[in-house]
Amino acid sequence: MGERNASESEEHLRLKRLAVVWAQAAGYPIAAAEVSIPEFQFRVDAAAYRPAREIELRWDEQKQKRRRISVASLGVTAIFECKCSRPDYLRDAASLVKTRDRLESLTARRTQHEELLKLHYPSIRNGDSLFPEYETFDFDRPGCEAYGRLMKEVRRLSSRLHAQTKFDRLTQWRAANLHFLVAEPELFRPHELPADWGLLLRNGDALELAIRPVLHETRATQRLSLLHRIAMAGTRAANAHLGITFDEIELTRRASGRWTKGT
User: pLDDT value at position 151?
Assistant: First the structure.
């Protein structure tokens, strides 16, 4: 599945494993744990990739009908960060109390807005998953300016709450199309979730999608880079499982060079 940190707890390892399982079950067949993102100097607990379907149906607001469109050839990327203890997730500072309280109020209003938008605009589904229960929504649309202003304030306060944290940087730098926090139940309250992140909560031996993430646009080169890193993490895991060492690979590489010269 991937490398395990020497100091990693059994609880964290369990969440990481469940994230990889959930990703594949949700239609992301290429997934791995402990994926490095060198350009951001981070390593995420897990990452996954869903190849693009050649054609998808999207709603055309002007013509009021669905139309077929070509989808970006590099598919959708997702990253997962696992947290099994509250101190590990949220900085405990008295100065943040007012920010959290305000976010709690805004989050409740956001939920009400989104339920109304889903009711009145059934076309807001992004079509980014093979399964409706995992699909994200596009709430940024003409006529929903009040929701846009609300989300601007939510993001501002969330950035203050998580300033200079890994969550904040991953969101700002658009490390992936989708960002998920994987957590133990009752770890924190929904309004404490980083803005635009989805929430997966452990329920026994499986994860349940509690909050859907916002689908972000990312550069094609960025998605391709993450796909490569997922493949590299998968290769490391396969080597560890098969007992293949770096020294063995290096010896084989040198021998292969000699064979190439002799052919």
Answer: 75
Domain boundaries, the chain: 12-256
Q: For the chain, how many residues are written?
A: 263
Would you say 27 and 131 are in contact if contact means Cβ atoms under 8 Å apart?
yes
- CA dist 80 and 23 (Å) reads 9
* Cβ-based neighbour number of residue 37 at 10 Å: 19
Distance (Å, rounded) from C-alpha 118 to C-alpha 160?
29
Q: Please give the Cα distance from 161 to 192 (Å, whole number).
A: 8
For residues 254 and 71, the answer to whether their CB atoms sit within 8 Å is no
In which residue ranges of the chain is pLDDT below 50? 2, 70-72, 92-96, 164, 263
Nearest in space to 171 (alpha carbons), one of 12, 20, 40? 40
> Rounded to two decimals, what is the model's pTM?
0.64
Distance CA 214, CA 199 (A): 11
Tell me, what's the pLDDT at 42? 77
pLDDT at 58: 56
Distances from the Cα of 13 to the Cαs of 3, 8, 199, in angstroms? 10, 7, 18
Angstrom distance (rounded) from CA 212 to CA 200: 9
